[in-house]
Amino acid sequence: CTSIVGEDSNGKMYHARNLDFGLFLGWDLKNDTWIISELLRPLIMNINYTKGGELKYKTVTFFGFVGLITGVKPNAFSVSVNERFNANGGYIGLFEWFLNINRKQAWTTLVARDCFENDDMDFNHVVKTLANTPLIAPVYYIIAGPVKQQGAIVTRDRAKAVDVWLLGSNNTWFIAETNYDHWKNPLIIDDRITPCNRCMNKLGKEKMSFEGLFNVLSSKPVLNKLTVYSALIEPKTGRLETYIQYCPTPCDPF
Amino acid sequence: LLVRTEPEQVCENGKYPPDPSTSFVPTYVVNLDLPPSQRWQELSRKYQKPLSAIVTYIKKFVLEFSPKLQKLIDLIDNKLGLVADSLPEPYGEEIKGIANATNIELGELVLYNIFYEVFTL
After folding, report:
1. What is the mean pLDDT of residues A152-170?
2. What is the overall mean pLDDT for chain B?
3. Main-chain dihedrals φ then ψ at residue B35, nearest 5 degrees
4. Would you call B1 helix, strand, or coil by DSSP?
5. Is residue B8's pLDDT more than 70?
6. Does the beta carbon of A250 lie under 8 angstroms from any beta carbon of chain B?
7. Interstrand relation of B27-31 and A44-51 (parallel, antiparallel or unpaired)
8. Are residues A58 and A45 in contact, defined by beta-carbon separation less than 8 angstroms?
9. CA–CA min distance A165, chain B (Å)
10. Cis (ω within 30 of 0) for the bond into B90?
11. Which residues are within 8 A (CB) of A10 and not within 5 positions of it... i.e. 6 or more apart?
12. Is A142 helix (H, G, I), strand (E, B) or coil?
């Protein structure tokens, strides 16, 4: 996955993401595709959750999946979830849950949806909640708000946040996350963050827009064989655009 | 597969908006005023086949690793469904509602919903 939050030269906030999924779950030799990624594409949908006839929040999901991996609450906040691989992985939390040893920990995508269900949440509350709630698995939460400089990437261990990276620190106008801790180098065979940062810097604050972000998300290897959709979000208005993505050969497998 | 094909790394231009014939994503409304078990019923009828296809593929993939893993699938079908009762509300009930409407084993649907956590295995 790749998630980006940033602002344009007028301070307007944007949030964008590529959802990559299906690694090592079967390769279709005939079509040069990951089988799971192909099976997921027909299940992609935008959901507008309503209450009392009014829109409460929007998500992008796969049918049958009730947690939240991409969502926006208009004029409040947006969240995207990226996978994080860690030695203290989700299997420990899963066993603790299944054996009823510890159920005072949250499912990574359900606690994200909880934030949207709760009427009292704003950007700062969401950052605090997603930074501090004990989790079953490590994860990255990428959060944006409707106001200038409201952007954060929360790097989570199961117990708590190991890092909260805020937009604006070191004069950043965007921050981006793939599937590696931002203070470490990615695997040399899976470096999507360097091209992402390069394309964002080339785009520049002045040209930050849905169009610019979609071009970055469509640049290889940010776009790769695992990418099933790109989502573009404007937290202030709640504008959400989702596009199914394909990466025709030649294209990196991940 | 592990060797990169080294495509030219360029920053794309002119990709937006993409061709709607290949990139279109539908939008649906889910009414939170409905009981959780009923919220996804209409969509369940429409999406039963593609959802069933992915669940069937995962089982096939597991069995291709080793036929002995049938025991794991039996465990998922018979026991994992119980986990739905332990999930926080309203999510457990939403998953049960989808399982009922699609006739997909509850355990398999629970697995699909906790796949993120399972995948870290």
Report:
1. 96
2. 91
3. -60, 145
4. coil
5. no
6. yes
7. parallel
8. no
9. 23
10. yes
11. none
12. strand
Amino acid at B87: L
Strands A161-166, B27-31: pairing kind: unpaired
Residue with tokens 């119980």: B82
Q: Is the pLDDT of residue B121 over 70?
A: no
The closest alpha carbon to A124, from A150, A149, A163, belongs to: A150
Residues of B in contact with A114 (CB under 8 A): 88
**Chain B residue with Cα closest to A245:** B23
**Pick from A157, A184, A183: nearest CA to A169:** A183
ipTM value for the complex: 0.96
What is the SS3 string spanning A6-50? EECCCCCEEEEEEEECCCCCCEECCCCEEHHHHHHHHHEEEEEEE
Place of tokens 């009014």: A54
pLDDT of residue A249: 95
DSSP for residue A149:
T
Q: Both tokens of residue A144?
A: 């944006």
Q: What's the average model confidence in pLDDT over B11-25?
A: 97
Question: What are the chain B neighbours of A108 within 8 Å (beta carbons)?
Answer: 116-117
Give the number of other CB atoms < 10 A from CB of residue A186.
15
pLDDT in the model for residue B5: 52
A254 to each of A46, A138, A199, B95, how far by Cα in Å? 24, 20, 18, 30
Q: Which residue has the tokens 């931002």?
A: A182
**Distance from the B120 Cα atom to the nearest Cα atom in chain A, whole angstroms:** 5
Q: Which amino acid is at B63?
A: L
Tokens of B2: 């592990």
By annotation, the residues of A acting in catalysis are 1
Q: Return all residues near A70 (Cβ < 8 A) that are at least 6 apart.
A: A17, A19, A59, A60, A61, A79, A80, A81, A231, A233, A242
Q: What would the two tokens of residue A90 be?
A: 């989700």
Cβ neighbour number for residue B38 with a 10 Å cutoff: 14
Q: How many CB atoms lie within 10 A of CB A100?
A: 8
Per DSSP, the residues of B23-81 read: H---EEEEETTS-GGGTTHHHHHHHHHHHHHHHHHHHHHHHHH-GGGHHHHHHHHHHGG
**Yes or no, beta carbons of B117 and A250 under 8 Å apart:** no
